[in-house]
Amino acid sequence: MFVPVLLFALGLVLLIKGGDWFVDGATSIAAKLKVPEIIIGATIVSIGTTLPEVMVSATSAVQGLGEMAYGNAIGSVICNTALIAALTVAIRPSNVDKNSFLLPVCFFFGAAALYLIVSYFYQDFTRPFGILLLAIFVCYMVITLVRGFRHPAETAEDENPSEEKEETWLTKLLSPVSDFLDKHEWFRDIAALVVGAALIAFGADFLVDNGTVIAVELGVPSSVIALTFVALGTSLPELVTAITSLAKGHSSLSLGNIVGANLFNLVLVNGISVALAPFSLPESKQLFGHNASLVLDLPLMVAVMAILTIPALLKGKVKRWQGITLLAVYAAFVTVQFFF
């Protein structure tokens, strides 16, 4: 049992670090190609932060672990909203830009409505449905890019030039490598892109394989492990972003990123997984004699997003009571997963 837990943790580390390097490399390459910053943020960075979820769910689906693929995608939406966004809002409520907030919120609830219809009436995710979800993702990206080109955001200049740092024995030892990378920026960026993608792939394998072993050893359904531990693990990039944004006083930025990531989890992560290997709605977990996916997971996914976004759209701000409420909901959700 110790080895699977250790490899599970290693998978999380590889996913997080791989995603970090992938985004850094891709962003730097895009900047060198003179791609507008708004486009970089709307495409490469946003997709890069959801790569852990994409890789874990896709790997799970291909391996025939539909419960893991489903649980990771839906669990990540719940975790992002009721834990990560909730922490941000509870600690530092902020104003919300309604114009930038409205588009991803509308797309999310539209896609969620479609997902609920398929779940409740068919309970079977087919390849055409996966392709439809990916089409929604493409549509959202096109609209976002068009709006970005029409209303580009101004790029702030760096007012604090980097100061010369004191050299230590370690920096002196590594200075030849550092000098080489500084002189060959293209090599550095491409290496970051390739190595980051490789780490994400290996991390996803470790996470899925050992998460399944842990679930079997504990007698817990794979969907429960995916809805909690795996979802939290793959949401760590969003958590790091939220904490960083909060520390720098940009809590509204963190909120917007989380809503966008939730949309990507629903249409991109689910879409790729279902298109690669269709699967049925998980039925291994029962709650009060009914499928837990239908009576808890899916309704809760919509409910927590409604608690977070609807007051924000109506009032133009998020308040502390929303964050506290969502944190209480998440605590109850995790408790139900393991004790009922």
Could you characterize the architecture of this molecule?
It is a single chain. The relative contact order is 0.23. Helix 4 (66-91) packs parallel to helix 12 and helix 5 (98-121) packs antiparallel against helix 12. This protein is an all-alpha fold and 340 residues long. 81% of the residues lie in helices and 2% in strands. The chain has one domain: Up-down Bundle (A middle domain of Talin 1). It has a two-stranded antiparallel sheet. A two-stranded antiparallel sheet has the order 3-4.
Query: Average pLDDT, to the nearest integer?
Result: 79
Count of discrete alpha- or pi-helical segments spanning 4 or more residues:
13
CATH architecture: Up-down Bundle
N-to-C series of helices and strands: HHHHHEHHHHHHEEEHH
CATH topology: A middle domain of Talin 1
Give the CA-based shape. globular
**Low-confidence region ranges:** 154-165
Count of strand segments: 4
The CA-CA distance between the termini, in Å, is 24 Å
CATH superfamily: NCX, central ion-binding region
Main sheet characteristics: 2 strands, antiparallel
